[in-house]
């Protein structure tokens, strides 16, 4: 943990850990959320940063159908293309600078596969926890391509919430912010932000935040109280993802691809998914992903201890 100037309070640097993400050769991703010392930034509860990844070497992204509950997935690319399919019937491509948001709600299944023409894959996969009042909402899918906002020292693409005079139409269930920031080489980008929010800045390339150097893949956490964020670039342009939201204020139980409120919630979700895979379920919570009939991902074994809530 490092100290920031008095106006902005404490700044905490979260370093990523490498995690293999499926595929024959297991594409590596850098995971900064959740961590033992911090599970949430607003309702943001999961952050994977990957690439630039040469698909010929790693096999790219090959994630067969798998389930989710109680969350929204936010897919954002810097380079490459990913094909998304889900059990609501949505079929879409994830492209650079365009957000795909999938609401799992009470339950959904989806697949993510990099397209055959993708040589290099580079981006972020993010999750948002749904509040208790909305966690059983109907599943759905939204796509949005924000126009860049040109600013002194750089630009922004606002894909969730509001920033720099732009507001995204994508629906969220708690107050949130998501934006890609680009800073010109040798430039400084200064932005007014909501002081009621806590914020995280995920560095895609090296950048300087309020005098602190962020290495690629690191996530800087800023507590509520900030009214401005100041990011600078060195000799090369800088790129970051700005994530923010009001403190979530709820405890969640998060395991594998599920978010619930109790250990028993997770046990039930897992049991249901396994029953749907086996064809023995009386009703379908997660449904069927069209045109992907095989190789669905089974749930891993549950731990031998009770899952604990965090928040």
Automatic annotation (TrEMBL):
Residues 29-128 form the Pirin N-terminal domain. InterPro entries: Pirin, Pirin_C_dom, Pirin_N_dom, RmlC-like_jellyroll, RmlC_Cupin_sf. Signal peptide: none annotated. Residues 180-275 form the Pirin C-terminal domain. SUPFAM superfamilies: RmlC-like cupins. Gene3D superfamilies: Jelly Rolls. PANTHER family: PIRIN (PTHR13903:SF8), PIRIN-RELATED (PTHR13903). Belongs to the pirin family. This is Pirin family protein.
């Amino acid at each position: 943990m490092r100290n920031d100037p008095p106006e902005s309070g404490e700044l905490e640097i979260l370093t990523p850990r490498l995690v293999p993400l499926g595929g024959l050769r297991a594409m590596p991703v850098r995971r900064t959320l959740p961590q033992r010392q911090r599970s949430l930034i607003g309702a943001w509860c999961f952050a994977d940063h990957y690439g630039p990844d040469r698909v010929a070497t790693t096999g790219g992204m090959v994630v067969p159908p798998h389930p989710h509950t109680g969350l929204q997935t936010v897919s954002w690319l810097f380079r490459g293309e990913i094909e998304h399919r889900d059990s609501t019937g949505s079929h879409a491509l994830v492209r650079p600078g365009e957000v795909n948001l999938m609401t799992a709600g009470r339950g959904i299944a989806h697949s993510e596969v990099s397209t055959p023409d993708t040589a290099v894959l580079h981006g972020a996969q993010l999750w948002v926890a749904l509040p208790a009042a909305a966690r059983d909402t109907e599943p759905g899918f939204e796509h949005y391509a924000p126009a860049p906002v040109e600013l002194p020292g750089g630009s922004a693409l606002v894909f969730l919430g509001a920033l720099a005079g732009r507001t995204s139409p994508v629906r969220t269930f708690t107050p949130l912010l998501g934006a890609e920031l680009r800073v010109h080489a040798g430039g400084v980008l200064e932005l007014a932000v909501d002081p009621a929010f806590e914020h995280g800045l995920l560095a895609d390339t090296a950048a300087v935040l309020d005098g602190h150097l962020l290495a690629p893949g690191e996530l800087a956490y800023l507590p509520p109280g900030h009214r401005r964020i100041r990011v600078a670039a060195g000799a090369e342009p800088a790129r970051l993802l700005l994530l923010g939201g009001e403190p979530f204020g709820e405890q969640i139980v998060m395991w594998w691809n599920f978010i619930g409120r109790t250990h028993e919630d997770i046990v039930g979700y897992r049991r249901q998914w396994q029953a749907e895979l086996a064809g023995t379920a009386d009703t379908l919570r997660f449904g069927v992903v069209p045109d992907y009939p095989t190789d669905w991902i089974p749930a891993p074994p549950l731990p031998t201890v009770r899952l604990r809530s965090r928040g």
